[in-house]
Specification:
Low-confidence stretches: 213-229
Number of helices: 12
Shape: elongated
Length: 229
C-alpha cells in the first residue's frame, strides 16, 4: 500500500532520467578515482599516465569537485524529501561536477582568490549556492516563507512603536544580507502581503488586519473633493 502511494507521488519519466544519471555517475566515479590518486598514488587502480595527470591537479580543482559532490548529495536528498525531482535537476548535478574542477583550476591559475585561499573559496562557492545561503540567512532571521514576510510587513505598520521599530531594523538587516535596497525589501514584503494566494493560506489558520494595505496613505480623489464642495 505504501509503495503504491509513493508511485503515485513520484510519477517519473524514467527514460528521460537515464542520460543525465549515467553522465553524473561516470563523472562521480572518475572524479573520485582522480581525487584518491592525487593523495595516494601508490594504491590507485588508475594507469600511471592518469595518476600523473591527477597529481598535477591543483588543490582548488579537487576542492571544486568535492564541493560539487556534496552539493549534489544535499540537493538530491532535499528534493526527495519534498518529492520534487525533475530531469533538469539531475542535469544540474553533472554540470556542477564538471564546473567545480574547471572553475577551481582557472581560479587558482589566475590567482583570483590567492594561492592559499583559492581551494576554500571554490569549495564554498560550489558547495553552498548563493540562493541556498540567502534562504538560510532569511530562516535565521525568522523569515521561513511568504507568510512570515507578510507578517513582517504588517509589523512595520503596527500601532505599537516597539514592534514597528523592530520590524524596520529587521528590514534594514535583510537588505544588507540580500544585497538590495530597503525599498526593494519593502516592495517584496508588500507584494507578499497583497498576494491573494498568501492571503488564502494565511486565512486558513489566522485572521489578519485587512486594513493594512500600503506604506503611503491613499491620496484623495481630487474630482470627488471638488464635487463635494
Amino acid at each position: 500500500m505504501l509503495r503504491e502511494e509513493w508511485k503515485n507521488k513520484l510519477v517519473l519519466d524514467l527514460p528521460g532520467y537515464l542520460y543525465p544519471t549515467a553522465i553524473a555517475s561516470v563523472l562521480t566515479a572518475s572524479g573520485t578515482l582522480f581525487v584518491l590518486a592525487r593523495f595516494d598514488s601508490a594504491q590507485s587502480p588508475l594507469p600511471s599516465a592518469l595518476v600523473r595527470i591527477a597529481g598535477m591537479a591543483p588543490p582548488a580543482a579537487v576542492a571544486g569537485f568535492v564541493g560539487a559532490y556534496l552539493w549534489s548529495l544535499y540537493d538530491l536528498v532535499d528534493r526527495f524529501r519534498v518529492l520534487n525531482l525533475p530531469v533538469g535537476a539531475v542535469h544540474v548535478v553533472w554540470f556542477r561536477l564538471l564546473l567545480g574542477p574547471l572553475l577551481g583550476t582557472y581560479a587558482q591559475q589566475l590567482g583570483i582568490f590567492g594561492t592559499n585561499f583559492a581551494p576554500i573559496a571554490i569549495f564554498m562557492i560550489i558547495a553552498f549556492p548563493v540562493a541556498d545561503i540567502t534562504k538560510w540567512l532569511l530562516r535565521i532571521k525568522g523569515i521561513r516563507g511568504s507568510i512570515e514576510g507578510a507578517i513582517l510587513w504588517a509589523r512595520l505598520h503596527s500601532n505599537d512603536p516597539t514592534t514597528k521599530t523592530d520590524a524596520a531594523a529587521l528590514i534594514q538587516s535583510l537588505a544588507i544580507d540580500i544585497g538590495i535596497t530597503e525599498n526593494g525589501v519593502k516592495n517584496l514584503l508588500q507584494n507578499l502581503w497583497e498576494d491573494p494566494q498568501v492571503d488564502l493560506i494565511w486565512s486558513l489558520w489566522f485572521d489578519r488586519d485587512v486594513t493594512i494595505q500600503s506604506a503611503d496613505p491613499p491620496k484623495p480623489n481630487v474630482s470627488t473633493a471638488v464635487a463635494a464642495k
